[in-house]
């Protein structure tokens, strides 16, 4: 029996995407969103893709990975090198993205097969080490121009970032709601129990890890083609931590949370721009506050769903 | 909400308040655009200058020194004009090239006439295209990377950014000048190069030194590498000790150079050690020990030895303002700001006229006299400073020959 894809909720999601696209377009055209806010929007969009892809690994599958910046750098440098070789146009960005996806999935497989048999802290250390290896390799290669990095033209506007944001969100949500996604959640809840139920835990962990890596590499491509300079320093351990902060801040296991926290952190960063001296203090303090009052993150594991809204709406209807 | 949590957050607010109190004693760095209209006489123009510096993050040392240099220059210009003619708009780029893109966009939309900064090549390269497209003059005090003022630094034939200028000489020029000095003045024919693999600064220096030294008849005996953060260099130094050479060229920053010099001298390597402006720090003396800093020479843009009158005036003004000695970065930023101000005095705020005025400027500043070449890099001679017991004792101008 073919499942009906044309449900009310799917229609509402599509409507939301189209409306927000035209709303942003309108706001840009009438000048409310100026160039500064557009740059901030790009940062936020890329951060959301990074956060939801890491959330898939950490929040849904329960595997603590600290190598996300490594995968991002694979995407960024694949794009950077190809744009340098082929000249700056949109088609070279897409070829770079494809190469990045291919490379990062191969690398993710190589890393995942041995390390995902590890648990907890050991996995964190292994992925951390791997992220640093990628960075040092890039730093010492001729084609990546070593520590000086690559200077690239700006080839993207917000529309493509928006498109890939929608695609990435669709991929992670669809994966989480599929049978393998459910298996990943069971691995997170109790690995031994799910093994007893006949779930091949390593297989599902690898699946989630590779999908996460591919999305991170796409984010890297978007970064490289909109932020002019890529340097090995941009993808250090600190970058992985930044992404992790967004995930934990929003709530592990909640994609809605990753959206909200990437937005909040982006807006906070921009609005505090003119208070340079105390910006980091305020930022740090807010993180501490969140951890004291909501250790599970802003949204915990709450997920925004149109089906829930509809249910509530229908209940009210029935009551009245 | 339980009692413990309230206590915790109250404690934290106390901590923040005390930190904020500490930081408020430093000069305020927020944008100061309002409240000054009353001090401006009627009919007089004011100009906004963007300050785009690394005030926090990995290279905050450089950014803050340059911020002070720039603010001093603006203050002096305002005093000379008699009113708030130049208004600074300051932003922190957190030593991060992503943040630099946002700041550059913000500055462009703030309507500044010119921007001074950032201090590092990475953040500068991230800002150039945006500001150039917005026809805002950029004066880079210390973006030394080779060809960074070109739209594609890897391609020497690419277009130069019209509105981008820098005040420092580039890495390769400095490396070549040291090679020239080693051959001409130190009578060296054999050199060993020791540099950092992970730093673009070090790589630029090594390549340039290598090329120029060979061109003028020298011989490179060996090239050895370390990685930033290393503390024990004895393995490589033992190796070097057995070689026959005249000079050891250390291409890197003082952190490692200080330790290398100390360990080399302790090991009994009594050869002349030469380097670049990465040596220029008080910490070099602390790390290497004053006794070991003899027969050490390095290239720099700035020295207080044999200071000119202009330089002495700058040092005094800087000391009076901040109660400390100016670093090289402060001097470069001071010159960068003054070039911009001089350009504005001559041509006003029209972008094209201002660009032409700065391009043709013949400037004499605290880091030397210079004009700009076709890549908007200053043509100025490099200074070679010699150390005696850790103290700068001689300074000589050198230019590499083609």
Describe this entry's structure for a reader:
The complex is a heterodimer of chains A (320) and B (402). Helix content of chain A is 74%, strand content 1%. Chain A has 320 residues and is mostly helical. Chain A has a domain of 199 residues. Chain A has a two-stranded antiparallel sheet. Chain A is globular, with a radius of gyration of 20 Å. Chain B folds into 2 domains: 186 residues, Response regulator (Rossmann fold); 145 residues, Rossmann fold, CATH 3.40.50.2300. By secondary structure, chain B is of the alpha/beta class. Chain B starts with a helix and ends with a strand. At the A-B interface, helix 2, strand 1 and helix 12 of A face helix 1, strand 2, helix 3, helix 4 and helix 6 of B.
List the helices and strands and how they pair.
The complex is a heterodimer of chains A (320) and B (402).
Chain A (H helix, E strand, L loop, with lengths): L7 H22 L5 H26 L7 H19 L3 H26 L5 H19 L10 E2 L6 H20 L1 H11 L1 H6 L4 H24 L4 E2 L6 H14 L4 H17 L4 H18 L12 H14 L1
Antiparallel strand pairs in A: 1-2
Chain B lengths: L2 H21 L23 E7 L6 H22 L4 E7 L4 H14 L3 E3 L4 H13 L3 E4 L23 E3 L4 H14 L5 E7 L3 H16 L3 E8 L7 H8 L5 E5 L2 H14 L4 E4 L6 H7 L7 E5 L8 H14 L5 H20 L3 H9 L3 E3 L2 E5 L5 E2 L2 E7 L2 E8 L4
Parallel strand pairs in B: 1-2, 1-3, 3-4, 4-5, 6-7, 6-8, 8-9, 9-10
Antiparallel strand pairs in B: 10-14, 11-12, 12-13, 14-15
Helix pairs in contact in B: 2-11, 3-4, 5-6, 7-8, 8-9, 11-12
């Amino acid at each position: 029996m073919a499942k009906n894809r044309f449900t009310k909720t799917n229609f509402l999601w599509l409507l939301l995407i189209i409306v927000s696209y035209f709303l942003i377009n309108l706001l840009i055209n009438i000048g409310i969103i100026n160039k500064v806010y557009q740059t901030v929007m790009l940062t936020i969009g890329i951060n959301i893709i990074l956060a939801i892809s890491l959330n898939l690994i950490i929040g849904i599958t329960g595997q603590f990975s600290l190598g996300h910046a490594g995968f991002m750098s694979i995407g960024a440098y694949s794009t950077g090198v190809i744009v340098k070789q082929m000249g700056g146009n949109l088609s070279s960005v897409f070829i770079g993205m494809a190469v990045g996806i291919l490379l990062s999935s191969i690398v993710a497989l190589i890393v995942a097969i041995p390390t995902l048999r590890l648990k907890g802290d050991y996995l964190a250390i292994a992925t951390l080490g791997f992220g640093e290896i990628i960075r040092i390799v890039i730093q010492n290669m001729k084609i990546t121009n070593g520590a000086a990095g690559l200077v690239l033209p700006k080839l993207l506007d917000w529309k493509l970032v928006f498109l890939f944001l929608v695609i990435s969100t669709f991929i992670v949500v669809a994966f989480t709601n599929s049978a393998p996604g459910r298996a990943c959640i069971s691995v997170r809840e109790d690995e031994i129990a799910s093994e007893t139920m006949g779930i091949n835990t390593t297989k599902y962990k690898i699946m989630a890890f590779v999908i996460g890596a591919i999305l991170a590499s796409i984010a890297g491509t978007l970064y490289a083609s909109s932020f002019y300079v890529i340097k090995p320093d941009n993808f250090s351990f600190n970058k992985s931590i930044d992404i992790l902060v967004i995930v934990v801040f929003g709530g592990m296991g909640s994609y809605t949370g990753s959206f909200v926290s990437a937005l909040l952190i982006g807006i906070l960063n921009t609005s505090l721009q003119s208070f340079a001296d105390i910006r980091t203090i305020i930022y740090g303090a807010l993180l501490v506050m969140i951890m004291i009052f909501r250790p599970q993150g802003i949204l915990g594991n709450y997920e925004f769903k149109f089906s829930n809204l509809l249910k509530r709406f229908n209940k009210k209807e029935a009551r009245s | 909400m339980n009692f413990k949590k309230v206590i915790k957050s109250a404690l934290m607010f106390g901590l923040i308040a005390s930190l904020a109190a500490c930081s408020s004693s430093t000069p305020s760095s927020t944008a100061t655009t309002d409240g000054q209209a009353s001090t401006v006489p009627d009919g007089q123009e004011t100009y906004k200058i963007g300050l785009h510096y690394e005030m926090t993050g990995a290279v905050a040392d450089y950014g803050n020194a340059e911020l002070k240099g720039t603010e001093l220059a603006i203050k002096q210009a305002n005093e000379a004009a008699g009113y708030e003619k130049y208004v600074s708009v300051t932003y922190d780029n957190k030593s991060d090239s992503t943040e630099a893109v946002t700041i550059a966009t913000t500055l462009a939309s703030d309507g500044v006439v010119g921007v001074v900064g950032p201090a590092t090549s990475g953040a500068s390269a991230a800002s150039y295209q945006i500001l150039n497209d917005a026809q805002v003059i950029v004066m880079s005090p210390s973006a030394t990377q080779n060809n960074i003022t070109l739209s594609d630094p890897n391609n020497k034939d690419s277009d130069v950014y019209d509105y981008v200028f820098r005040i420092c000489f580039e890495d390769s020029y400095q490396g070549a000048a040291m090679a020239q000095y080693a051959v001409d003045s130190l009578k060296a024919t054999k050199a060993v190069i020791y540099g950092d693999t992970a730093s673009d600064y070090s790589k630029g220096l090594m390549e340039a030194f290598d090329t120029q030294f060979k061109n003028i008849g020298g011989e490179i005996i060996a090239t050895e590498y370390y990685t930033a953060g290393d503390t024990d260099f004895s393995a490589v130094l033992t190796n070097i000790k057995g070689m026959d050479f005249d000079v050891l060229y250390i291409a890197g920053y003082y952190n490692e150079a200080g330790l290398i010099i100390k360990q080399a001298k302790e090991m009994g390597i009594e050869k002349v050690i030469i380097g670049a402006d990465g040596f220029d720090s008080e910490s070099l003396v602390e790390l290497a020990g004053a006794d070991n800093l003899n027969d050490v020479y390095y290239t720099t843009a700035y020295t207080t030895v044999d200071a000119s009158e202009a330089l002495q005036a700058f040092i005094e003004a800087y000391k009076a303002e901040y109660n400390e000695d100016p670093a090289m970065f402060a001097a470069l930023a001071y010159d960068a700001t003054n070039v911009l101000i001089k350009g504005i005095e001559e041509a006003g705020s029209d972008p094209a006229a201002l660009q032409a005025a700065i391009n043709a400027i013949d400037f004499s500043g605290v880091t030397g006299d210079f004009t700009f070449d076709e890549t908007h890099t200053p043509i100025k001679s490099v200074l070679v400073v010699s150390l005696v017991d850790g103290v700068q004792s001689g300074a000589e101008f050198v230019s590499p020959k083609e």
